[in-house]
Write a structure and sequence with these properties.
Elements: H1 3-6, H2 19-24, H3 28-37, E1 39-43, E2 48-50, E3 58-64, E4 67-73, E5 76-83, E6 87-88, E7 103-106, E8 110-116, H4 117-126, H5 128-154, H6 157-172, E9 176-178, H7 183-190, H8 194-206, E10 210-213, E11 216-219, H9 222-231
Antiparallel strand pairs: 1-8, 2-7, 3-6, 3-8, 4-5, 4-7, 9-11, 10-11
Helix pairs in contact: 4-5, 6-7, 6-9, 7-8
InterPro entries: cNMP-bd_dom (IPR000595), cNMP-bd_dom_sf (IPR018490), Env_Response_Regulators (IPR050397), HTH_CRP (IPR012318), RmlC-like_jellyroll (IPR014710), WH-like_DNA-bd_sf (IPR036388), WH_DNA-bd_sf (IPR036390)
GO molecular function, one term: DNA-binding transcription factor activity
Keywords: DNA-binding, Transcription, Transcription regulation
Length: 232
Amino acid sequence: MNLEYQTDGYCSDRQSISAKDCFDSLTPNQKDLVEKSTTLLQFTKGETIIKQGFVASHILYIEKGLAKLDVTNDSKLSTLKLLSNDSFVGIMCSFACKSLDFSAVALEATTIRMINMDLFLSLIKENGEFALKLMRHMSSLTNEIMHRTSRIASKNVEGSLAMILNEFKEIYKSTSFTLPVTRVGLASLAGCSKESTIHTLAKFHKDGIIQMKDKQITIIKPESLELIIKNG
């Protein structure tokens, strides 16, 4: 078996497959079936979308909005990932067992498409391209979460907070945005205390790296933020 040939094109620098890319590989009839057979639900800011331990009866897909994916181990809550438009909610864990091993909370008004698990599994069986893209998408997410978790754990307060601010910059595609969380929520995302978060934000503001007014954040020196992420 020529392993070099078999793995060609799947190197680490290959562009990742998004959840939308997966659905784009469905046939017109399959897309129509998904549209007609699924339910759209609206969640307000702060509302729980799914709770850890619930039965895995549906695949959840964010049509529009922002949410955080959490997992609780030994009574300690950890945020694995921020989820924005066109994202599956916990797709990596949805096939692992009958109950979901994660929770998700809306950080702003969020629209969720609920896809019946049996329908989703039938699409995987019937459409090889969809199945392959889904597999690559899940692998990419797993890799991303592993590296994010490792980086957050190894950073000091400045480094982890800089990472979270940079994530919001990428989600909103702007250096100026309104934080969708409180200072306590931001501290939870960064894995540090509220006091450390407030102190570090004030330091970033004083050093001219960001401008801050209430929840409005403007990143003035993105290159400095990147340097803090690298060295923090």
